[in-house]
Amino acid sequence: MAAIPDEAPVQVLPVGKASGPVDLTAPASTALEYLRQVRHEAQQLPAVVVAPPAPKSDTSPPLCEHLARSFPPTAAPGALGRLEKWRHETVTKFEATRRRVRRWVARGDLDALEDNQFPPLPATTDIDGWKEVVSSRAPFLSSVLRLRQQEIRAILKLHRRWLEDDGVPLSPAQARWIYALLGCLDRLIDAETTACLRGLCRGTALAADPAASAAAQVILTLVAVYFGQHDLLDAGLV
């Protein structure tokens, strides 16, 4: 391969040297003066220009941000026609959340969800640890999407235990975690998971916190309509 001669590039539009300093503050009066201004500006630039780093995008939005349109939700209306519409809107919003979750999973780039602001989630056997997490941390995508299905089911069982067995009233923070976990739970559920979800509904129906009563209605509706437990609607839980 022939060597490239070490020569200065030939100017496409040769421009003679200016007789005096180039004034960049005034508009050029001739084409030649304009070319001299352009060349003068180019000569002031460094040989290598390093672009500033792009601002770091928020690749790990909290899943609770996705739920902002549902939490705090509006309470279910009493009139039957309006109630049916409310149920439909509730399930539609939930399906949209699940589609967003599936898109993140399909990307397969869970390393991009790394979140160093919080320590790892506790083991599913760490009951006290999960109580602390639910009360103090939002369900971040970077955390929830890393949970395996068996872990999601185990954490839902903890919530059922607190609500149904221990009689702990549903709180808004706990409702957000339940909603997030349901958003990542496989729709095809086995008998054990079905029993867990039905127990969740019995527990959330006893919600004493007024701020959580509307969220309880959302959870009941999702279990009944989306996860196929329609008889809960007939029982008048929602």
What does this structure look like?
The protein has 238 residues and is mostly helical. The protein has 10 helices and no strands. The protein is elongated, with a radius of gyration of 30 Å.
The mean pLDDT is 77
- Rg over CA atoms, rounded to whole Å, is 30 Å
Biggest sheet: strands, sense, closure?
none
What's the helix count? 10
Give the helix/strand class: mainly alpha
The total count of strands amounts to 0
Uncertain spans, ≥5 residues at pLDDT below 50?
54-60, 64-69
Provide the β-strand percentage band: under 5%
- Describe the global form: elongated
**Quaternary class:** single chain
Describe this protein with a few key phrases.
mainly alpha; 238 residues
